[in-house]
Design brief:
The structure holds 2 protein chains of 2 kinds. Chain A is mostly beta strands. In chain A, 0% of the residues lie in helices and 50% in strands. The termini of chain B are far apart. In chain B, strands 2, 5, 6, 10, 11 and 12 form a 6-stranded mixed β-sheet that branches. In chain B, strands 3-9-8-7 form a 4-stranded antiparallel β-sheet, with no helix packed on it. A two-stranded antiparallel sheet of chain B has the order 1-4. Classes of the chains: A mainly beta, B mainly beta.
Chain lengths: 115, 114
């Protein structure tokens, strides 16, 4: 069964550094998402992306965050200047369509640790 | 805004016991409802879904019925196995919106003992 893949599985970065998290969505999917889960808290929506532009973003997704689909297969999340509070598990997801009844398929996540 | 409330865990059960995880939601209109499962060290996997009132989603022996009148989507399994030990997340998406974000509950950790 096709799956969403994320790399790296664990990223350790110094505060203030830039970090790029990478995702390869399922190949025929058109909608892409990033979520994060701070340890012990809920899974939170960050951003959705369709047709090479952001469809929706949450309050968390401020100017320090950006997303990009640099080629036909990758979908990346960049944090420009990391803060301690960015430490979390980041999940990428994709869906075939954008309607509410379309299930989103998740990767295994990247654990980001900011020192 | 939309929200999902799940019973807090951990829920500890013996093998072959009956499992219920309560989930209620707040949303306008008719959201789609989902249960995701996260096994240790893995990502979120879709377990089942229901997209309209009175729909029943089912998979791997798990069931949940979309109850509009009680705004609930409780997850049940009649006889759990040790392999069902995981964190279960209830979630919803809004109707009629593209690029639809999922709103998650807090997750319920289930531990099944042999």
């Amino acid at each position: 069964e096709p799956e969403v893949t994320q790399t790296p599985s664990h990223q350790v970065t110094q505060m203030g550094q830039e970090v790029i998290l990478r995702c390869v969505p399922i190949s025929n999917h058109l909608y892409f998402y990033w979520y994060r889960q701070i340890l012990g808290q809920k899974v939170e929506f960050l951003v959705s992306f369709y047709n090479n532009e952001i469809s929706e973003k949450s309050e968390i997704f401020d100017d320090q965050f950006s997303v990009e689909r640099p080629d036909g297969s990758n979908f990346t999340l960049k944090i420009r200047s990391t803060k301690l509070e960015d430490s979390a598990m980041y999940f990428c997801a994709s869906s075939e369509g954008g309607a509410g009844n379309q299930p989103q398929h998740f990767g295994d996540g990247t654990r980001l640790s900011i020192l | 805004g939309n929200s999902v409330t799940q019973m807090e865990g951990p829920v500890t059960l013996s093998e072959e016991a009956f499992l219920t995880i309560n989930c209620t939601y707040t949303a306008t209109g008719y959201p789609s409802l989902f249960w995701y499962v996260q096994y240790p060290g893995e990502g979120l996997q879709l377990l089942l879904k229901a997209t309209k009132a009175d729909d029943k989603g089912s998979n791997k022996g798990f069931e949940a019925t979309y109850r509009k009148e009680t705004t609930s989507f409780h997850l049940e399994k009649g006889s759990v196995q040790v392999s069902d030990s995981a964190v279960y997340f209830c979630a919803l998406t809004r109707p009629q919106a593209a690029g639809n974000k999922l709103t998650f509950g807090g997750g319920t950790r289930v531990l099944v003992k042999p």
